[in-house]
Amino acid sequence: MEVITRMVADRPVVIFSRSTCCMSHTIKTLISGFGANPKVYELDEIQNGQQIETALQQMGCKPSVPAVFIGQQLIGGPNQVMSLQVKNQLVQLLIRAGAIWI
After folding, report:
1. CATH number of the domain located at residue range(s) 1-97 in this protein
2. Low-confidence ranges of the chain (pLDDT < 70)
3. Which are the contacts of 4, defined by CB distance < 8 A and separation ≥ 6?
4. Is the full-model pTM beyond 0.85?
């Protein structure tokens, strides 16, 4: 989990993804659509991707991708992100994290 903490420490939005996952693509598109520029880690394309995926599962991410961090806090997967969007809370999180300006 320490490696994940380091990976999310300096960016307002971080998404752990798989390049072949349609839900990962959807979440990246949603967040980018607000003007945010998330740091995306494609776990199937990086050397320690399996280790990171295991750590995400230990943190409670089921499924492990996509896993979204906003303001260094684990938001969760697609269900949690879409729930925030439906409640009109996602944009406010992005603003507070400094990911977008309005």
Report:
1. 3.40.30.10
2. none
3. 16, 52, 55, 56, 59
4. yes
